[in-house]
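hey can u run this one w/ 4AD bound, need the structure tokens asap thx
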Amino acid sequence: MFNNRIKIKELLAQEPAGQQVTVMGWVRTFRNNQFIALNDGSTNNNLQVVLELGKFPEELLKRITTSASLRAQGVVEPSLGKGQKMDLKATTIEILGDSDAEKYPLQPKKHSLEFLREKAHLRFRTNTFGAIFRVRHALAFAVHQFFNQKGFIYLHTPIITASDAEGAGEMFKVTTLPMDGTAPKNEEGAVNYKEDFFGRATNLTVSGQLEGELGATAFGEIYTFGPTFRAENSNTARHLAEFWMIEPEMAFCDLEDNMNLAEEFIKYIIGYAMQHNAEDLQFLDQRLAEEEKQLPQDKRSEMGLLDKLKFVVDNQFERITYTAAIDILRESNYNKKKKFQYEITGWGMDLQSEHERYLVEKHFKKPVILSNYPAGIKAFYMRQNEDGKTVAAMDILAPGIGEIVGGSQREERMDRLTTRMKEMNIPEEELWWYLDTRRFGTVPHAGFGLGFERMVQFVTGMNNIRDVIAFPRTPGSAEF
Ligand code: 4AD
Ligand code: MG
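ok here u go:
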């Protein structure tokens, strides 16, 4: 048996008492031909492996270089040195994989996040990314735990679809037709997708919601958690072309129930990470504090990362309507002093990220749930309110991020829905399978989508969304 190792995280939680163990990992540093700082990815803390001088051959010592992998066996004893409670006194060291020190791209100094982004493999071995990806894992696990405890069914909605769920048209095409102009044409001279692989035009999904509604109106409550794709050319710190979204969908549910669930859900997964990843979050809290020291006073966050997370978990989100938000923005000093890049033109306008951030960061200083948006700026499936102008939509805005959740109560009344679809030129024939949910036992229902990477950004305090996903896809970039 090869894998008789104990993980370093587990070992460090024990008391050193002469136990015999085997560990495996990658060398972080090797000092004085005696002290290896070994890391195996289970924690940012290294295990100090001590080699007795003169006991190991010179050839072996030479191969203990940064990022070399090895297996160490020995006895665990209280450490004589400062900074760690235990040492592993090595009896055997076996190099598993050499790492050429001359060619190794990372130096012991601090590297910029941009530089590390180009080293897909090795960035995982840094403390910052170690902490981020363990927290990301915990959040993903907490998502499943939350919904499982509530009896939701995890529904796997398709990645390849023929529908544009959001009606925004920002989709990646999926086709096997040739791109060199020889694709079959129809009578109008356009590409004939009837001859394509699926016998129709298809794309990568922008949202699993429409399929999710079919699940909710049979199982009662479902959620999806999968990759979604948007071909929007937004080169910002909050947009990815491929991101993960969690979309719960609930039958017998109105807008307020939806908001309650979303708030409870966000608090739950943050609380889970605070409980299970305290060390990593402490590390990220300090990292952010260091980073913010470089900023001018007025650009720094008012709260540290851990304080912010605790504040969000312990306090109610602010809930206001879109109409009230427009009034606040219009009356703000920011607006009067023309500090917004996009002017507040009045009711009906779509909010830009700077407006959302003003509301959460400057005005309310806490997460805000905005509801009842003008129908004109929202998707076709949202429930029409009695005022004839707004729809039962809600967005959750988070400090430092802006929009983190988008959701709504759905239009369950067939006539209202199809009228809206006609107005928006959405062909009924293509969505017959969706409209069936309104034909056979329609119910009030609602749901929302949480952008997982934006959530991970919020919890880790990372400024750029590219630093919270393992292999970011953004305009002009799909390396690795
Ligand atoms: O607001 P959106 O477009 O809503 C939907 O897709 C609905 N179908 C959700 C639902 O009701 N089931 O997207 C939901 C969330 C946003 O609030 C944002 O957090 C995230 O997805 N998001 C992105 N995250 C990263 N990169 C992008 N390009 C994103 N676009 C949306
Ligand atoms: Mg949205």
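The domain at 8-104 is CATH 2.40.50.140 (OB fold (Dihydrolipoamide Acetyltransferase, E2P)). anyway lmk if its weird
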